[in-house]
Design brief:
Blueprint: H1 3-15, H2 23-38, E1 43-46, H3 50-62, H4 74-83, H5 85-94, E2 101-103, H6 108-117, H7 123-131, E3 137-141, H8 148-160, E4 163-168, H9 173-178, E5 181-184, H10 190-213
Parallel strand pairs: 1-2, 1-3, 3-4, 4-5
Helix pairs in contact: 1-10, 2-10, 3-10, 4-5, 6-7, 7-8
Length: about 220
Amino acid sequence: MEDRLEKHIEVLIRRYPALDICRKDIEEAYFLLEKAYENGGKLLLAGNGGSAADCEHIAGELMKRFRIPRAVTPEFAQKLAEIDPTRGTSLAGSLERGLTAIPLVAHEALTTAYINDVDGQGVFAQQLLGYGRPGDVFLGISTSGNSKNVMSATVVARALGIRVIGLTGANGGELAAVADVAIRVPETETYMIQELHLPVYHCLCLMLEDHFFGSGEASD
């Protein structure tokens, strides 16, 4: 791993020493994500409750700037201005490039219709079937590692050729057993697990942003 990316992990471990045990898995998860984005893939995310909120949080960090400005390319800025000199020029100055991330928890009409009409356990699996393509990555967040709807989604993901990252607690559960990479933070109490999930995914987002959009320095 490049020194400038490793710095982000070093900052993470310095601030949260308990996460040192997760270092290798965080690095492996990062490389899965980097490869997916390099090849035109995307990230699909699912979780329940607080983990659902984390999915939306992650998408927010990836789809726009986190710390580094992400201006659109000059070529795209020119196209915008050619289409509409006023609006296009304004958009060229305000739009930011993103890394495509789709939180499967966010589509209320689709999810509630599927839960009502078919099966609540397949709500994320159905969306993966529709959105997912080989080369994508699925991030399942489950403090227990045993969330039934997340586990159903992993079955579809693997059938589609989508790599699976699990973000869990210390026990890992079923999710850790089937994931390509499982980041098991060293806590067993739900809220304490969630408190460590946030700095882990912030670190992943920082490294991805640094790689694709600039050389942002890690900071305390």
